[in-house]
Design a protein that fits this description.
The chain has 5 helices and 7 strands, in the order H-E-H-H-E-E-H-E-E-H-E-E. The strands form 2 sheets. It has a 5-stranded mixed sheet, covered by helices on one side. A hairpin with a 3-residue loop joins strand 6 and strand 7. The longest helix has 29 residues. 24% of the residues are buried. The structure holds adenosine-5'-triphosphate and magnesium ion. The site of magnesium ion (MG) has 5 residues, from helix 4.
Length: 182
């Protein structure tokens, strides 16, 4: 029992360290202190890597992730930071999509930028919460959320990383069809 309790304490301590690190990263990004190391990166490459990283979680829930991002999308970004964006967004999509759902990644070029859409067939986000979810610690108060874990920092981090690259992020709700983060 002592061992079990120590394991629990250890686990909670790890979670606190993660939380503190997320907060530190957010504040460094907000204050412009994070150095963004721009280099040409294949978007397909990042997407495939992150999908592979999260494939066990997907399999466990019977969720299918597909990407039709083509080789041609090579953009100047910080690989490590953009990987975190994909990990958080795909991670959320898995977390808030019931078993047997689907997640779809697409990319298309607009005038001066590339738009990436991450769509899921999950619980979706009520329109009144579509701005607040990007704030620190904000989590939508819906039934399914009760069994999901999280601190509500992921999207705040994602937004800061995207904006540090000169990009924008937004979410739309497809009626009955889940969320699309762009
Ligand atoms: P953390 O990312 O810190 O582990 P979290 O996933 O709850 O916790 P965020 O990633 O910041 O926090 O997301 C904020 C809230 O937005 C979530 O709690 C959830 O209510 C909602 N949300 C985010 N992504 C989705 C999605 N794909 N579908 C439905 N709701 C979502
Ligand atoms: Mg999250």
């Amino acid at each position: 029992d002592v061992i079990k309790n120590l394991e629990k304490i250890n686990h909670h301590a790890d979670e606190l360290v993660d939380l503190i690190n997320d907060l530190l990263d957010i504040s460094r990004l907000e204050s412009g202190k994070t150095i963004i190391r721009f280099e040409p990166i294949s978007l397909k490459n990042i997407a495939d890597k992150v999908i592979d990283m999260l494939s066990v979680q997907c399999k466990d829930k019977g969720i299918e992730v597909s990407s039709n991002i083509q080789e041609e999308f090579v953009i100047n970004v910080d690989r490590v930071q953009i990987e975190r964006v994909f990990i958080n967004l795909i991670g959320n999509a898995i977390k808030f999509t019931p078993p047997q759902g689907k997640i779809m990644l697409t990319a298309h070029s607009k005038k001066d930028f590339v738009q990436i859409d991450i769509a899921d067939t999950g619980i979706g986000i009520p329109s009144e919460a579509q701005e607040s979810i990007f704030e620190e610690f904000y989590r939508v108060d819906n039934a399914i959320k009760q069994d999901t874990k999280g601190t509500g920092l992921g999207l705040s981090l994602v937004k800061n990383i995207v904006e540090a690259h000169g990009g924008t992020i937004w979410v739309k709700r497809k009626p009955q069809e889940g969320a699309v983060f762009s």
